[in-house]
Amino acid sequence: MNDAILKIDTITGGYVPNVDILHGISMEVKQGASVGILGLNGSGKSSLGKALVNMLPYRSGTLIYEGNDITHLSAEAISRAGIRMMFQGGQVFQSLSIWDNMRLVTANTFEEQMERLRPLIPILDDTKERLMGTMADRLSGGQRHQLALAMTLATLPKIVVLDEPSAGLSPKSVAGMYDLLQKVREEMSLTIILIEQNISRAVDFCDSCVLIQQGTIGKTFERGELKEIEATMFNVIGQ
After folding, report:
1. Model confidence at 235, in pLDDT bands (50, 70, 90)?
2. Domain 32-55+75-234: homologous superfamily in CATH
3. Tens digits of per-residue pLDDT, 185-206?
4. CA separation, residue 23 to residues 18, 42, 59, 149, 212 (Å)
5. Under DSSP, is residue 32 helix (H, G, I), strand (E, B) or coil?
6. Strand 58-65 vs strand 68-69: parallel, antiparallel, or unpaired?
7. Where are the domains of the chain?
């Protein structure tokens, strides 16, 4: 029995007509797995993440989710189906409070999702008054990433695509973010696709890592193979 929740079959595409960033990407993601997408700048790893939520046009290939072809669904429809992306930099609505950011993505399930996420996301564990009075533009980088993660989880996704959750954070905040992701993974039934430049964090966190090189799948590595990944990425001989 094939337990893949997501199948990516020879996806090719890019942002500019006739200029492809992804060149025949194929891979499978198992239900409940944590898969790292690694690569140098410009390799196509973030573009692959955006293709999964239909934010990068692809000219050929198919995307199968839970046995259904979602290749031509809109980004909104893919989100409703259960695939959500947390974008690089912890993107939130800066002009809104923490409270209103959460209300915006949860709609009729706001109270239920707030209660569910309070024990998991430290920034939500506060009084209503403080959450309503704290504007997102006053948050630190680590707090903003927490809020972005909470907004992503509040829609009850089955697959979460995390685009470089360590980007722009201090070492202490990176450690805190990955502690939080570990807690979320343990408490929620999620499949995680992690796009990351912090190789050591990705290798420690993920069950396996896929190396993207010039828009193609280079090699797949199992958990803990840090030296092997570094040797392949930077074309050096592991010691």
Report:
1. low
2. P-loop containing nucleotide triphosphate hydrolases (3.40.50.300)
3. 989 889 999 999 888 899 889 9
4. 12, 13, 10, 30, 10
5. coil
6. antiparallel
7. 32-55+75-234
